[in-house]
Write a structure and sequence with these properties.
This protein is α/β, with parallel strands linked by helices. Helices cover 45% and strands 13% of the residues. The chain contains 16 helices and ten strands. The longest helix has 22 residues, at 378-399. Bound molecules: 6-O-phosphono-alpha-D-glucopyranose (G6P).
Amino acid sequence: MIKVQIKDAERFLDQKVSTLQGRVEDVHDMIRNKSGLGNDFLGWLDLPVSINQEELARIKKLKEQYKDLDCLVVIGIGGSYLGAKAGLEFLKTPFKKSKPEIIFAGHHLSANYLKHLLKYLNKKNYAINVISKSGTTTEPAVAFRLLKQHIEEKYGIDEARRRIFATTDKARGSLYQLAKNEGYERFVIEDTVGGRFSVLTSVGLLPFVFAGIDVDGLLNGAKDAYMDAQTPDLKKNQAYLYAATRYLLSQSGKDVEYLVNYEPRLTFFAEWWKQLFGESEGKNHLGLLVASASFTTDLHSLGQQIQDGKRIIFETVLNVKKTDKLTIPWDQNNLDQLNYIADKEISYVNEQAMLGTKEAHVDGLVPNIVITIGKLDSYHFGYLVYFFEIACAMSAYLLGVNPFDQPGVEAYKKNMFRLLGKK
Ligand SMILES: O=P(O)(O)OC[C@H]1O[C@H](O)[C@H](O)[C@@H](O)[C@@H]1O
């Protein structure tokens, strides 16, 4: 389960978060009745209880069929990349090599990366999962063109076709057309599910199944978050409590929200979270600037600025209750002067660092929201995904923006296409 604590944020506000209850109820109804802006894109809302079982079964079958793979190359960007990457990092045992190794590509245009990837794949037994909702995004399309050529040369056209799985629209886009023509195994991203809300579809599930992640546990977590979000009551709905608090902080002059973690496995989760909130709210010259920090690492770099720079920041701390047990050994000579914490668990030291940091930052006028989760397992990953998705819808609607479009993203694309001479 998860717990949201707002006391170190609410004390900076002129009004209690509970005073928003009425507006939260209106937005809750708007989401449920699908009457708000962008309401065509609420297909993710019931995903935890309406997973496409047919696709999940096909994914599991594919995994069985290709159980000896060295690598699965997952091609995608934005919502077609970050959820799977965040999940794999969240759930991975450090230094443990996974088989198959999940390699991501198509999330940038680095020739250096792609060239070495092709070379690396020469000696690997691999398959490809190419993911693009629109089926027209440049970065994954470029990577896929290169990899398609590589896999066809390596295995011959027929076997290559069996080793390429495409996750895309059900009837539109160049990837859809290509996949259909070539006869690739296809998985569908429904029109009603935007990219950044798609991790609980085959977009995330295929890489998760191949990586051996406990998908049932993950879906159970998402389902519990879904159940917990049925009520608009701020005393019970933790996601809405978080959304309402960050909304009031933004109204009170805070411009930046840092998502802070004390476990490096959460670093990529913050990247997913940044797309979710950044693309959903950053429009009409509104929305919090979303940033992230991994502590205690970044306390030795960004810490100064958070403590003492412009007072426009608040933090949302992702606190993990249960981690591994490891104690600091006693040392006879004590030259490093650490015997005062000898025999203490490292997680205890980390916790004191967290408490000390919170106290210092709050004293330095940086409000803190704390979100505590039990542990870094598939259940909690699934829970947090849905928790933040529903919080994001609430938060964006409170702000008065359409959470589900991203018109601003086209600006750079237009210029890039012009510069590249696209007709
Ligand atoms: O899945 P795709 O259609 O390839 O889109 C991938 C990503 O790129 C776009 O430009 C959007 O800004 C993102 O919202 C999207 O997730």
